């Protein structure tokens, strides 16, 4: 199955010798949400900018909807909407006219009914006659999304879309993203709010130092690299881990009132039942137990600190 975006051995090296992208290959399916994660300077924005035709690659190919971004760039660009990190708006223009102008840049006929639909979906309709300089940072970012959607793109790039947006607006923005997915729009996002990527993305790609380390379904990634931690609260504090349990992956809390056990969620046997039984046999009374699943941020830190041989698409 051919993806709506096909990236094949893409590279970008600047005149200074900096390698922003190194042999990146990726297929993105129509209608999915994929999150690109990586530290600052990892190459996320360069990858997006290259796909959108803003950066010229030094090697490899990119096809968008079957159109090569270099030889058939007009057709490729019409399929794409881009919301960059930086807020770039004409301060004295109204919201409505700003979105109308962007639609015109793509050669689309005026369609105020559609623009109204977009502005209402982003809770901007009551601000349609306001100058953009009068808006809050969160509202300005929503205007950027409205401009990106003005020509009905099939693909939407969101580069740090919720940066500087308060919690309420952030949640509302992700509701819009979810609706766009239901409408069949393919969404590629970068974010530093890793919990959002974990909740929203179908797949997660990890980029570091210009290399795509891997791409996996979010649930599979969490299952492969995630772990659970069992915290066993004790009735009486301990001064050391019981000798019979010292060979296990156990840690004692600083106050001695809890034993902490890390285990693999994919293992056939976790060893929890045996551990609790051994503690009881030694007369150690357990007050309570609780578990915690590692989140995507912890998984991400594990990935960027452990080099991998190749990306897995």
UniProtKB/TrEMBL annotation:
Domain (ABC transporter) ranges: 5-234
MF-aspect GO terms: ATP binding
Keywords (A to Z) from UniProt: ATP-binding, Nucleotide-binding, Transport
One Pfam family it belongs to: ABC_tran
InterPro entries: AAA+_ATPase, ABC_transporter-like_ATP-bd, ABC_transporter-like_CS, ABC_transporter_ATP-binding, P-loop_NTPase
Keyword check for Lipid metabolism: no
Source taxon at top rank: Bacteria
UniProt KW Lyase keyword: no
UniProt name for this protein: ABC transporter ATP-binding protein
């Amino acid at each position: 199955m051919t993806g709506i975006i096909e990236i094949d051995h893409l590279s970008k090296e600047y005149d200074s010798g900096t390698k922003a992208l190194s042999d990146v290959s990726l297929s993105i399916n129509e209608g999915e949400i994929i999150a690109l994660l990586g530290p600052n300077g990892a190459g996320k924005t360069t990858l997006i900018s290259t796909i959108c035709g803003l950066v010229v690659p030094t090697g490899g190919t990119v096809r968008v909807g079957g159109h090569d971004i270099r030889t058939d760039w007009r057709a490729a660009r019409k399929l794409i909407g881009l919301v960059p990190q930086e807020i770039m708006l004409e301060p004295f223009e109204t919201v409505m006219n700003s979105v109308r102008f962007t639609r015109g840049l793509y050669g689309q006929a005026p369609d105020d009914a559609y623009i109204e639909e977009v502005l209402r979906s982003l809770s901007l309709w009551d601000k349609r006659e306001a100058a953009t300089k009068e808006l809050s940072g969160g509202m300005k970012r929503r205007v950027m999304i409205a401009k990106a959607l003005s020509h009905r793109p099939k693909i939407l790039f969101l580069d740090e879309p919720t940066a500087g947006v308060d919690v309420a607006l952030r949640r509302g923005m992700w509701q819009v993203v979810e609706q766009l997915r239901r409408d069949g729009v393919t969404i590629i996002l970068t974010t530093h709010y890793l919990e959002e990527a974990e909740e929203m993305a179908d797949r997660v790609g990890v980029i570091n130092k210009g290399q795509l380390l891997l791409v996996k379904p979010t649930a599979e990634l969490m299952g492969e690299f995630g772990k659970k931690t069992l915290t066993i609260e004790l009735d009486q504090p301990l001064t050391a881990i019981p000798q019979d349990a010292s060979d296990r992956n156990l840690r004692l809390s600083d106050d001695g009132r809890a034993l902490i056990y890390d285990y693999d969620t994919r293992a056939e046997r976790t060893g929890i039942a045996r551990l609790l039984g051994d503690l009881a046999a030694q007369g150690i009374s357990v007050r309570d137990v609780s578990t915690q699943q590692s989140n995507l941020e912890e998984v991400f830190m594990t990935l960027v600190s452990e080099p991998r041989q190749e990306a897995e698409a």
